[in-house]
Design goal:
eight-stranded mixed β-sheet
């Protein structure tokens, strides 16, 4: 993880600060492990994880964007087949560009031109290749998605690091591959992954238009 040091802060100060920040940030999602004491259905535990990520995204971006689950729609969807329109776990979109339709609660059908980012969420990864394939399918089905509408995969808990480049504030702008990135938030027994968490936070910050060195 890369961040500018300020004043007389040492590297150790910096590490301890951001590790503590990550622990505090991840505390609500660490309770996800307690759900297994009451319910083991992955559809239920996964729904909690998705709701938490949407809530966090809304806290960061809700002053400017809407945060919904549903689908991104295009003019040619009927010709391509309406059954092929993918469900999206989380859509960051700008209602000032174009309003959604059938918007109710957290659900919305969002015109492509209003979409600003798509996040796919898994409580636990099956395999990185299978999740990457799912994200690539989202990119292919949303053929017009470009740099202004990036896709990120978020895995709540995984034993292995998933992000494939250095964690830096501007990592999204500096990314050289079109392969959709994946990050994890926790590992082991719900231990926060500091870099993985900051990858997610930096992603949202860059979607909001913030650029830092």
């Amino acid at each position: 993880m890369s961040e500018k040091q300020e004043g007389n802060d040492t590297l150790e100060d910096w590490r301890e600060h951001w590790e503590a920040y990550a622990r505090a940030f991840a505390q609500p999602i660490q309770t996800d492990g307690l759900l297994s004491r009451f319910v083991a259905n992955p559809n239920v535990t996964g729904a909690y994880a998705e709701a938490w990520v949407r809530s966090l995204t809304r806290n960061m971006l809700g002053h400017r964007f809407r945060i919904s689950t549903g689908a991104v729609i295009r003019a040619g969807d009927k010709r391509r087949g309406l059954l092929s329109v993918p469900q999206c776990d989380l859509i960051v979109w700008d209602p000032s560009e174009m309003p959604a339709i059938f918007e109710s609660g957290e659900f919305a059908l969002v015109p492509l031109c209003a979409a600003r980012a798509i996040i796919e969420i898994k409580r636990k990864r099956v395999t990185k290749n299978s999740f990457t394939r799912q994200l690539n399918e989202r990119r292919q089905l949303l053929a017009n998605v470009g740099p202004d509408c990036p896709i990120l995969g978020v895995v709540i808990n995984d034993p292995q690091p998933l992000f494939d480049q250095e964690c830096k504030p501007n990592w999204l702008a500096e990314r050289s591959t079109m392969e959709p990135p994946i990050t994890r938030l926790l590992y082991g027994h719900d231990t926060p992954d500091t870099d993985g968490i900051m990858v997610f936070i930096y992603f949202l910050a860059q979607v909001a238009g913030h650029s830092r060195r």
